[in-house]
Write a structure and sequence with these properties.
By secondary structure, this protein is α/β, with parallel strands linked by helices. It has 16 helices and 16 strands. It has an 8-stranded parallel β-barrel with strand order 3-4-5-6-7-8-9-10, surrounded by 8 helices. Strands 11-12-13 form a 3-stranded antiparallel sheet. α13 packs across α14 and α15 packs parallel to α16.
Length: 524
């Protein structure tokens, strides 16, 4: 099986295209929305990771989504940049406009094909859906030679009708055919049967690349993806950390490492630089404010941790007894206890480079180093994760309107908690004192006193970056304003300071979102 593709040229039989939809399907997870700068930063990291296709967004969904796709198309080099579109002409034209500047571009158009979706969602007869397939792909080809067509709810679609739709899409010029398990209903045997059936029955199937897009509602997304690839799919649609609607999508890091670790049963090749996986995962967690669970495969903090005495004994004798891949192969560091208060700027710069911050600007480096020295004075041990949290906390606050300056607190069992807060708002220092039901509430009230706003707090959580009583606290805050949700993070050895930083991070993100549509909507 060898296919000549407009954006990839001649593709070998075992080459697998990695299609990342973190910025589109992943961002549709509640609370996972990103602003323009965050999307661009994430897209650049995905390009460094080696993904072949970045689905940058759904251009017609909003002005913000269009701007994100357009900016990524203009600035991010290497991967194919794709925009999603429904079958209507307005969607496709908007997607075409958004990806126009990309050096390699794609329009990804879709329509539902299952009886359930056609009857209740589309309210369309099968013949009308079939006509829409041809019309949408034909129009998309006016903007690019690389057109992907998807059969939404493909795993629950009648086999005969699915074949007719795929045949129509290929005849109209689709170069990639995606058959998604949209609702996570399938098991691996289903996916293998569907792809084998369609590739065998559809005339012209050899002209297109077949793609798989699996959701994780039954916890089978990665297994279903690998089953589809074994049955001839050569594009894998996935997300970093497996984020996505409902239970998420197939996790890129899990699929990539399954292929790398088991060439005996998955003899495929991809372009992913697996040593960048952890850094990419951590960047996404920083941007969204959602960490992966500790036992998450590949990127969870326990993925290469061994507490059992039996396991430790085996690891000391031969790491292969309990590790099927090396920590370094996905970006973990073996040694984390290397930085302290006596470390100098050169050592700090070198450590940042090993952690993936090789191009940190001088101002950001100086600010990060200052905060590192302050942290080292307060902490006996500075772990790699401490430095990652510290630097990401600094970098994510560049160019934001409201900046933390200082905080003093009075709290206890006999007095009403009181916070005295200093903030830099647009370059001017403001001070406010406020009471609250607790020190966190008092701090948030002080923020509101300095910068009145209508955003409402929807979530507040506290965790530890590392272990020990001197560990940095990592706080997450979710704010809602005019129906839009944003998440912020903050890290500090003082939990209340971390909470203040997280609240300000979220508030600044909300201000960025509002500035594009209604600048006065947030501030009262």
């Amino acid at each position: 099986m060898s296919i000549n593709h407009p954006n990839f040229g001649q593709i070998g039989a075992n080459r697998v295209i990695m299609f990342d939809t973190t910025l589109r399907d992943g961002e549709q997870s509640p609370g996972f929305s990103m602003n323009l700068d965050e999307k661009v930063r994430m897209a650049e990291m995905l390009a460094e990771l080696g993904v072949d296709v970045i689905e940058a967004g759904f251009p017609i969904a909003s002005i913000g989504d269009f701007d994100s796709v357009k900016t990524i198309a203009e600035t991010v080099k290497g991967p194919v940049i794709a925009g999603l579109a429904r079958s209507g002409s307005a969607d496709i034209i908007r997607a075409g406009e958004a990806v126009r500047a990309a050096e390699r571009k794609r329009i990804h158009t879709f329509i539902s094909t299952s009886p359930l979706h056609m009857k209740y969602k589309l309210r369309m007869e099968p013949d009308a859906v079939l006509a829409a397939v041809t019309a949408s792909v034909t129009l998309a080809r006016d903007f690019t030679d690389d057109v992907e067509w998807s059969a939404e709810d493909g795993s629950r679609t009648d086999a005969d009708f699915l074949c007719r739709c795929v045949e129509a899409a290929i005849a109209a010029g689709a170069t990639t055919i995606n058959i998604p398990d949209t609702v996570g209903y399938a098991v691996p045997e289903d996916m293998a049967r569907i792809f084998n059936m369609v590739r065998a029955r559809v005339p012209g199937a050899e002209k297109a690349i077949f793609s798989t897009h699996c959701h994780n509602d039954l916890g089978l997304a990665v297994a279903n993806t690998l089953a589809a690839v074994a049955a001839g799919a050569r594009q894998i649609e996935c997300t970093i950390n497996g984020i996505g609607e409902r239970a998420g999508n197939a996790a890129l890091e899990e699929v990539a490492m399954a292929i790398r670790t088991r060439p005996d049963v998955a003899p495929y090749v991809h372009n992913i630089d697996t040593t960048r996986i952890l850094r990419t995962s951590k960047l996404l967690a920083t941007i969204t404010g959602f960490d992966v669970q500790p036992n998450k495969a590949i990127v969870g903090r326990n993925a290469f941790a061994h507490e059992s005495g039996i396991h430790q004994d085996g690891m000391l004798k031969n790491a292969a007894t309990y590790e099927i891949m090396t920590p370094e192969s996905v970006g973990w560091q073996k040694t984390s206890l290397v930085m302290g208060k006596h470390s100098g700027r050169a050592a700090f710069r070198d450590k940042l480079a090993t952690l993936g911050y090789g191009e940190l600007g001088d101002n950001a480096l100086n600010d990060a180093f200052r905060r590192f020295k302050d942290l080292a004075d307060r902490k006996k041990i500075v772990y790699d994760d401490d430095i990652v949290a510290l630097v990401d906390d600094e970098v994510m606050r560049d160019h934001q309107r409201i900046k933390f300056v200082s905080l003093e607190l009075w709290a206890g069992s006999k007095a009403k908690p009181r916070a005295l807060l200093e903030l830099d708002v647009d370059g001017t220092i403001h001070t406010a004192e406020a009471l609250g039901d607790g020190p966190v509430d008092a701090t948030f009230n002080a923020i509101h006193a300095i910068f009145p706003h209508t955003a409402e707090l929807r979530l507040f959580s506290v965790g530890a970056v590392t272990e020990g009583t001197d560990a940095q606290a990592k706080c997450s805050v979710r704010l809602e304003g005019d129906g839009k949700l944003v998440d912020g993070q903050g890290a500090d050895t003082d939990t209340i300071v971390a909470a203040a930083r997280a609240y300000l991070h979220a508030l600044n993100k909300l201000l960025v979102k509002r500035a594009r549509t209604a600048p006065a909507a947030l501030a009262s």
